[in-house]
Amino acid sequence: MTKKSTKGIWKVISASSLGTMIEWYDFYIFGSLAVVLSTKFFPSDNPTAAFLSTLATFAAGFVVRPFGALFFGRLGDLIGRKYTFMVTLLLMGGATFLIGCIPSYETIGYMAPVLVLVLRLLQGLALGGEYGGAATYVAEHAPKNQKGYWTSWIQTTATVGLFVSLVVILITKGTLSKEAFDEWGWRVPFWVSIIMVFISYMIRKNMNESPVFAKAKAEGKTATNPLKESFGNKFNLKFVLLALFGATMGQGVVWYTGQFYAMSFMKTVQCIESSQVDTLLGIALIFGTPFFVFFGWLSDKIGRKTIMMSGLLLAIFLYRPIYRAMYTTTDLALKTEIVAKTKVIPSIKEVDATKMDSIYTTTKMYIDGTALEEIKTKHFEAGKLMLDDKGKDKIETKITKTITNSDRWMLVFLVFIQVLFVTMVYGPIAAFLVEMFPVKIRYTSMSLPYHVGNGIFGGLLPAISTYFVTTAKDAGDVEFYLEGLWYPIGIAAVCFVIGMIYIDRKINTLHD
């Protein structure tokens, strides 16, 4: 590869990566702020139901990604890679900005969650067309036998987008007071995205079309009906199904377990203070991100299958020990409380003649430096304690832990291990998918299995796993916090078996 061609491909990667990173940023600030958004766009009388509804809305954006893959994949194979992912960038950026403008549930009632859902669906459609275009565009500029290395730079963008979203949230929280952030500051990360989208648009509009696609178009070898040629052709459909059930299905659940489920687990199950979680997750991502490129490069040397299947296998056997270690790291039952420093502060605020709320704030300190704040809210009506939907006293409890540096670094290490699994299955997969399909239907054929695997199997993980945890907790399961892992473990195991049996190591030379 000449120096000139190297310089050219770096321009391609930079432009493609920046736009894709911004789209992931747009997509994931919603997930990063799920706990806050549940209090803004959904009824507040049942916090658990509101949080689950928020996760379901988050998942809805993933569910429609395959439809975006079909629609924009078809356009990409008909009119070109460049213009298609220009459209997806603008659609994603506009939807994200508007989410930050929606009035709260208290202001417009049920229109709030409806509008959020509509915009989430638009985000999902846009992202469904973005990734396939960016990965295909870079791969078609890359030299032979180096596609794994060069496309792995695109693979870093999802993690970088998540990292940037966490940084913007932390800066916003650090700049504003807690009250200001809760009132309106949470909207700022959504508004900031429009600036980044404009910059990316200006860069992308000056890019040239993929030389491989341009050559095929000039020779009249592009597809006339990409959908029919991709999925109506039995030979090609076989590869589409293999890509889904033998690779992207497992990759999707590993990706979301190692990053989003880990974040949700620390905030909602371990009850660690939100900014501490964002910080330690960001540190783990910084350490882990270079391994996307490493495993992409390594896949050019030893093959995509070996690395991806190894990542799946490690995740299957190590998830439960890792999450058990995460839970016990901050388990207060294993720490010694400084009883003399425990404070209980009751306060009763009269709302009207027949209704009052009784709030008790308990603070505790532990010998190792861990701090606990527990707020119990008892709701009264006509002088009587209100009942929940199960006939029990309606008492809401919010627990927040501020953990020590040693515990924080232990959690950084445990999340980093999970990110390594992610880099193993995700680093080589763009090249793996591109090489499975011919140029004329590549955008369409690779986009669908990728977004079904990530959008359906991966995107539903937060909602399904949280439901499993909640159900196990209500049933009195001692290790309830591990139940949510059965979903990603099961999906990854099925994918591993199919991939080991049916993926041919020579598949990465199929369409060189």
UniProtKB/TrEMBL annotation:
Record Pfam families: Sugar_tr (PF00083)
TM spans (from-to): 12-37, 49-72, 84-105, 117-138, 150-172, 184-203, 239-259, 279-299, 306-323, 409-434, 446-465, 485-503
Protein's cellular compartments: Cell membrane
Stored SUPFAM superfamilies: MFS general substrate transporter (SSF103473)
Keyword Cytoplasm recorded: no
Membrane topology per record: Multi-pass membrane protein
The name this protein goes by in its record: MFS transporter
Species of provenance: Flavobacterium paronense
Lineage per the UniProt record: Bacteria, Pseudomonadati, Bacteroidota, Flavobacteriia, Flavobacteriales
